[in-house]
Design a protein that fits this description.
Blueprint lengths: L2 H11 L16 E3 L6 E3 L5 E3 L2 H4 L4 E10 L8 E2 L6 E4 L6 E7 L2 E10 L2 E7 L7 E9 L9 E4 L3 E5 L3 E7 L5 E5 L4 H5 L23 E6 L5 E10 L5 H14 L3 H9 L3 E6 L1 H13 L26 E2 H18 L4 H14 L9 E2 L25 H14 L5 H20 L10 E2 L6 E4 H16 L6 H14 L4 E2 L4 E2 L2 E2 L10 E2 L8 H9 L7 H17 L1 E2 L8 E2 L17 E2 H20 L5 H15 L15 E2 L5 E2 L5 H16 L8 E6 L6 E2 L7
Antiparallel strand pairs: 1-2, 1-32, 2-3, 4-5, 4-10, 6-7, 7-8, 8-9, 9-16, 10-15, 11-12, 12-13, 13-16, 14-15, 17-31, 18-19, 20-21, 21-24, 22-23, 24-25, 26-27, 28-29, 29-30
Length: 699
């Protein structure tokens, strides 16, 4: 997102009750992107790349598409808007189909991303009269808004800054072609949003070719026109090859049937309970994946860090938990994800720090260190600004994945786990709980129940992995953490505390007795511990009380809408805008379902009748995040948060709740907590696919 677009959105939404002005939202529209670029298609047909975290190239930063009578002037162009139209996917593919109501009749737009190419086909054959297609496409090569140049190649345009060169080509050429110059400081600083595209200016002649925006009119001789965009790095793809590729794509997919065949060739089948949810989860997780298997947390809607710290990065907590959930679900459903697991394990080995831990976050496209604020183990000073749960989560996945490997790969995983064990020990205090550090929500420091849960699960998974010279030591550590968790028990509330305040806090050593959905991780951690140690009856009683109380206390069902689910923790004030109460989070709701299902499974293994009521809790919470549920958008995708009046907010889709949903379905299926009537079959892409989302349209 470029500054001019952020300022335009700020001017448009500065007083909005639920929108944060200046963001590049993805809560409407749909994504396309099966293997490389991630392109958003809004409900008015505007395109925008969210590709940088995945491929290291910025691409399209703004666009607009429309039609006008053949041979007419610019002033007669009808730019598409979201009023009166409709958007869908073609079947189960990532081909986005958007219909537009225009004064000339209905016009259909087809969008498909294939690797580093995106194709847009506009079909006006059912409209009245002969129409041309107008396209305004703005590129931001190397993330730049200025110092950009254009080269014209007849039926193609090249837009560049330095390393990144982006291309636009039309299957029918261009009737007219011009650059779109900046509006100057008055437009940027004015009270009203700048129009896009701007009217033709008679200003300096060179402005049109010193801009990233291209305005073209495409002839539509048979009632349709097609244009393609291609993102490249000049050092990796010569100009001649790039021009050939973008021209070939525009010509090859110049009709609807060709686009449909290409889209259908990239999907497979999945069957089983809640197959529509399983298919959507795998689509989202593949959509957010980079070539190394590392995933962006979500589309980066706030690149200026105005209201958040950004989302287009790989966090090792989210990513490794997703990896573990995928591994468990693959074992249950036979999803054929062995390549995903292998890529994840390799990337974790390659990104591990010398001390055995992992950094705060990295870039998905190459695994290099990304901007962050919790890199205490890379900086001078103490380790408080470090999220120890991330290392614990990676260890849990790798220890579980070890059973899937052999030979040199298994040895490499074992070496990684040995270093990680030492790294965890460095942050384990003498009392058996992790030392003061940052929490999973990244908004506080202390000694958290969630961090202790990740250590219990990691040490237990290591003990179960039967690694010579390591598993016995890991079991001893797991037993230490197991005993120490009782230090966090709050008898008055029947829960485990959110945290013990750190030594630098005003309430140092005291317990923060609030309910925290992250502390629900204790449920699955104890189930893993039960494979190598004994969970006594008192602990089991406390876990039942904890899960039941936390899910009840954090549950909200606001009267303003149909949405319902769990908040993050008591007193959470983040991104509430004008809302007084805490917002509902899909991560927390899915976590509640998974925790209840995990504890139900644990109880079932012990023949405990309380398993039934916890299975009912799991089903109720899962229902809110399933397709058709109150927190799930129309395409089956989950936004991070939802306002009480029903407006989705923040990163959409967010990978973490999708993985939680998938793992919960797999676990509930294994323990027969799901009705047989929920079984169905859906098609899904083998690696990447489509999704919900988009920013607001310009006025």
């Amino acid at each position: 997102m470029q500054l001019r677009d952020a300022l335009n959105d700020y001017k448009r939404h500065r007083d909005h009750e639920t929108r944060f002005p200046g963001e590049c939202r993805t809560t409407t529209g749909r994504f396309s992107g099966l293997d490389g670029r991630l392109v958003h298609v809004d409900e008015d047909g505007r395109l925008r790349d969210f590709s940088y975290p995945l491929v290291g190239l910025t691409g399209v930063v703004r666009s607009r598409v429309g039609v006008r009578p053949a041979g007419a002037a610019d002033s007669e162009t009808t730019w598409f808007d979201a009023e009166g139209g409709d958007q869908r996917y073609h079947g189960d593919t990532a081909l986005v189909v958007t219909t537009h109501e225009t004064p000339h009749g209905v016009v259909s737009q087809y969008d498909l991303t294939l690797g580093d190419v995106h194709v847009t086909h506009v079909d006006a054959s059912e409209a009245d009269g002969e129409l041309d297609v107008a396209a305004c496409v703005g590129f931001g090569p190397d993330g730049r808004d200025t110092q950009i140049g254009q080269l014209r190649h007849g039926d193609a345009v090249e837009v560049y800054h330095a390393e990144e060169h982006d291309y636009l080509a039309s299957a029918t050429g261009f009737e007219t072609l011009r650059g779109e110059a900046f509006g100057g400081f008055d437009g940027l600083a004015g009270d009203a949003p700048d129009p896009y595209p701007r009217p033709v200016s008679e200003d300096r002649y060179e402005d049109g070719q010193l801009s990233g925006d291209v305005v073209g009119v495409l002839p539509a001789p048979d009632g349709s026109a097609t244009f393609a965009t291609l993102l490249t790095d000049r050092s990796e793809r010569p100009r001649a090859d790039a021009l050939d590729a973008v021209r070939t794509a525009a010509a090859e997919y110049a009709d609807v049937s060709a686009l449909e065949r290409a889209a259908e060739a990239q999907v497979g089948d999945v069957s089983g309970p809640y197959a529509d949810a399983v298919a959507a989860d795998l689509r989202v997780l593949s959509l957010l994946s980079g070539p190394r298997g590392l995933r962006a947390a979500g589309p980066d809607f706030d690149p200026y860090y105005v209201y958040s710290g950004g989302y287009g990065y790989t966090w090792f907590r989210d990513d490794s938990e997703i990896s573990l959930f995928l591994l468990e679900s693959d074992r249950r459903f036979g999803l054929g994800l062995s390549e995903w697991h292998e890529k994840s394990a390799r990337s974790y080995r390659e990104t591990q720090l010398d001390d055995g831990s992992w950094p705060h976050r990295v870039w998905p496209f190459d695994g290099s260190l990304a901007p962050g604020w919790a890199n205490g183990r890379l900086e001078a000073g103490d380790d408080v600004e470090y999220q120890a749960d991330q290392t614990g989560s990676v260890v849990s996945f790798l220890a579980s994945y070890l059973a899937e490997t052999d030979g040199e790969e298994a040895e490499a995983v074992r070496e990684t786990l040995e270093r990680a064990f030492d790294g965890m020990d460095d942050t384990l205090a003498d009392d058996g709980r992790p030392a003061t550090c940052q929490n999973a929500w990244e908004d506080a420091s202390g000694r958290f129940a969630h961090t202790a849960a990740t250590f219990l699960e990691a040490y237990s998974a290591l003990a179960a992995a039967d690694i010579e010279g390591l598993s016995e030591r890991a079991l001893a550590r797991a037993e230490d953490v197991y005993r120490a968790i009782d230090d966090l028990w709050v008898p008055e509330r029947g829960i485990y505390a959110l945290r013990e305040y750190g030594p630098d806090a005003d309430r140092a050593g005291e317990l923060d007795e609030r309910c925290d959905s992250a502390a629900l991780a204790l449920s699955s951690a104890h189930r893993t511990y039960a494979e190598v140690g004994e969970v006594d009856e008192r602990r089991l009683d406390r876990l039942v009380s904890h899960v039941e109380t936390v899910t009840e206390e954090l549950y909200r069902d606001p009267a303003e809408s149909d949405v319902a689910g769990l908040i993050r923790y008591e007193g959470d004030g983040w991104r509430t805008r004008t809302q007084d109460d805490e917002k509902i989070w899909t991560v927390s709701t899915a976590w509640g379902a998974h925790a209840a299902a995990s504890l139900s499974a644990h109880l079932s293994d012990r023949g405990d009748d309380r398993a039934e009521s916890l299975a009912a809790t799991a089903s109720e919470l899962l229902g809110h995040v399933l397709p058709g549920g109150s927190l799930c958008l129309a395409n089956g995708y989950l936004p991070e948060q939802v306002f009480d009046e029903g407006t989705p907010d923040s990163a959409t889709p967010l990978g973490w709740p999708h993985a939680l949903r998938l793992a919960t379905v797999a676990l509930m299926d294994e323990y027969e907590m799901i009705d047989a009537g929920s079984a169905a079959t859906e098609r899904l892409p083998p690696r990447r696919s489509a999704n919900v989302g988009t920013p607001d349209a310009d006025d």
